[in-house]
Design goal:
Elements (H helix, E strand, L loop, with lengths): L2 E7 L3 H5 L4 H15 L8 E9 L3 E3 L2 E4 L9 E4 L3 H11 L3 E2 L5 H10 L7 E7 L10 H18 L5 E6 L16 H16 L9 H7 L4 H10 L5 E7 L6 E6 L2
Parallel strand pairs: 1-8, 2-7, 2-8, 3-6
Antiparallel strand pairs: 1-10, 3-7, 4-5, 9-10
Length: 253
């Protein structure tokens, strides 16, 4: 058995809801079209990783909503594979977390319109961006390296697909959360270059650059880098309508 698919998807709720200004709706259409082409059905389970957890761990169930974003009555749910989730938590040496999911998983499932018949195993890393974020970038990257080893380990007995729910810089324009910073553009250039030549190069990006660029994706993209090191990835879409990098990519497996 082996890892049979690898993908990067964004999780901004607006991309799934198709709301907001015209530039965001246009980007959302491009993002969703790219996501639709991802080869994610040919796996026994799909491991999805969020960067926005209240703590690092593996969810015991896959259900969540966007209530925290003021969107009432909209929820997502997916079957999970409890045995795979337990094995992943054990290999990673991290706890089970009770639902509801954080928005890094909920938003990604919404953007994906996930209706696959393969179960989702949802994991998360302690958030490093936003007010009161519990994690530090360097520590989360270290945890991500351990998770990459765990994902590879559980793929020895079954066909696993891995999805990194991640955004790149939040400093790509004057309208971005961190406004326009040179570090934001530098980070995204490094990420895109690594994907197109060797995805493993993302693991060499300094924690300080992730932090200065305000990128929530440091952890998930490090896991992707470690799992698919030595392989190129196809960038299917890259949009930054609100000054935040939204990326869709698939690994060559």
């Amino acid at each position: 058995m082996a890892l049979v698919a690898g993908a990067i998807v964004p999780h901004a709720p607006a991309l799934g809801l198709n709301t907001g200004p015209a530039r965001i709706r246009t980007s959302a259409e491009l993002i969703r079209a790219a996501v639709k082409s991802l080869p994610l059905d040919d796996c026994d389970a799909l491991v999805m990783l969020s960067p926005h957890g209240r703590a690092s761990g593996v969810y015991s169930g896959v259900m969540g909503s966007l209530d925290a974003f003021g969107v009432r009555g909209l929820s997502v749910a997916s079957p999970t594979e409890l045995a795979v989730a337990e094995e992943l938590a054990r290999e990673w040496e991290r706890p089970f977390l009770e639902p509801p999911l954080d928005h890094g998983i909920t938003g990604a499932l919404l953007v994906m319109g996930w209706m696959g018949d393969r179960p989702v195993v949802a994991a998360t890393l302690a958030g490093t961006t936003g007010p009161g974020a519990p994690g530090q970038v360097a520590g989360v990257i270290e945890e991500a390296i351990g998770l990459a080893d765990a994902v590879i380990s559980i793929s020895n007995a079954r066909r696993i697909g891995f999805v990194a729910s991640a955004h790149t810089s939040a400093a790509l324009s004057p309208s971005a959360p961190l406004l326009d910073r040179p570090e934001g553009h530098a980070l995204d250039e490094e990420v895109l270059a690594a994907l197109r030549h060797d995805a493993g190069g993302m693991a060499d990006i300094e924690p300080g650059l992730w932090r200065a660029a305000g990128a929530c994706g440091a952890g998930p993209l490090t896991v992707f880098a470690k799992i698919f090191s030595g392989r190129r990835a196809e960038v299917l879409a890259y949009e930054a309508p609100a000054g935040v990098g939204y990326l869709v990519a698939q690994a060559a497996v």
